[in-house]
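Fold this sequence, please.
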Amino acid sequence: MQRSHHQAGNPPQSASHSEPNSRQLTEAAAALGRSLDDDQAGKLALYLGLLVEWNKRMNLVGASSWREVLSRLVMDSWHLADHLAELPLPAEPRSLDLGAGAGLPGIPLRIFWNSGEYRLVEIREKRTIFLRVAVAKLDLPRTFVLRSRVENLGADALPADLVLGRAFKPWPEYLELVRPMLAPGGFVVVFANEAPPEGAGKDQGFRLDRVTPYTTGGGQRYFWTFTPDSASR
């Protein structure tokens, strides 16, 4: 997958004055209960600096400071990394991040969990440009940006062993959309602010594999993890 350094709409050339340094990032993460090694701290500092600077022009996220992004959004990514490490995924999974937006959770996730190939799927041009710049600058392994509608994804991305989508669609529509994209035994993770209702996923041909609660600066959250129910269809 080609990585683009082309810019549009006069995006910033440097994020140095907005970028936290590695020491600040390490200390802030430790205060939130996460230990970062030097490589993780350096890459995360660079990403947060880029995000805050580009956010001034593109309104990528609602949070305005890197500390707020760290506590309210990046924490999802490191909890997700822990969650994915416990799933029975293939050794080299193919993953899709639908409606990738500003790269949350995907880009920080790839700093903490870099198994297999990971594709950030986004249709909006300016966000795609930001994602490509960020992925290239961070030199994230086997991480690609696709500017595409989800319905138009091809054989280079499918079938997927793992599908993620943060606020991409209401979860019943999301499950209906992605079921044909999954490899046998694949998983879909839904981000939610509450526990799932009884029978969640059954009407869409899924069984709920596990529910994982966690806490971030935004409060109590959940990962709902589904896998196709072969007996339902």
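The first strand starts at residue 94 and ends at 98. Helices lie at 22-31, 38-58, 66-85, 106-112, 125-138, 171-178.
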